[in-house]
Amino acid sequence: MLGGVVPNIPSPVFDINTKNSCTGFMSPIFYVNEFKQFGFGTNQPASTYHFATPSFQIGSSNTTMFKVADDEIRFSNGNNELFKVTGTGLVYARRIKVTTANPFPDYVFDNDYKLMPLSDLNTYLKTNKHLPNINSAAEYAKEDGVDIGELQLKMLEKIEELTLYILQQEKRIAELEKVTSK
């Protein structure tokens, strides 16, 4: 039925209702009010797009592109699920691209980069119980989550420093082998 009128509701700009066969009452399917608010399953939209139905999807049953239902949100290309967020906070995706304003840590390989001597690093670790330039567990616990992009850059910095430490050790081993082979 088009243009159904519901008491105490402002006149709709556009309204599609269905009659409930059990109760005989009209149930809203799609509603647009004078404030350009769209109601799906409600004739009292509380926001620009208000979905009052327990689930919502774009696409047919076998080519769903976007779906909100069962305490999760899903995106697909019709064949494969591409992205999902569950009500428990888990996120599933094929790739995540994080952009950051901070420089990539290749500065570690610059000639003027001061790599901490291993003895100083050992002392720092014993005293602080975490790597330099990385927050402690207590500091991360105080924050409202972890910035994945920032943490990835810091971890890469540590990997690059480890590479330099390995190369230093390799050089020392080679020098010791020369001395002992004489």
Shape: elongated
Q: What share of residues is helical?
A: 25-40%
What share of residues are in beta strands?
A: 15-25%
Give the mean pLDDT: 83
Count of helix runs: 3
Task: Specify Rg, calculated over alpha carbons.
Answer: 30 Å
**Quaternary form:** single chain
Strand and helix order: EEEEEEEEEHHH
How would you classify the helix and strand content by structural class? alpha+beta
Distance between the termini: 99 Å
Return residue spans where pLDDT drops below 50 for at least 5 consecutive residues: none
Spatially, the strands of the biggest sheet line up as: 5-6-7-8-9
Report on the biggest sheet. Answer: 5 strands, antiparallel
How would you describe this protein?
The chain has 182 residues and is of the alpha+beta class. It has three helices and nine strands; from the N terminus they run βββββββββααα. The chain has a five-stranded antiparallel β-sheet, with no helix packed on it. It has a four-stranded mixed β-sheet with strand order 1-2-3-4, with no helix packed on it. β6 and β7 form a beta hairpin. The protein is elongated, with a radius of gyration of 30 Å.
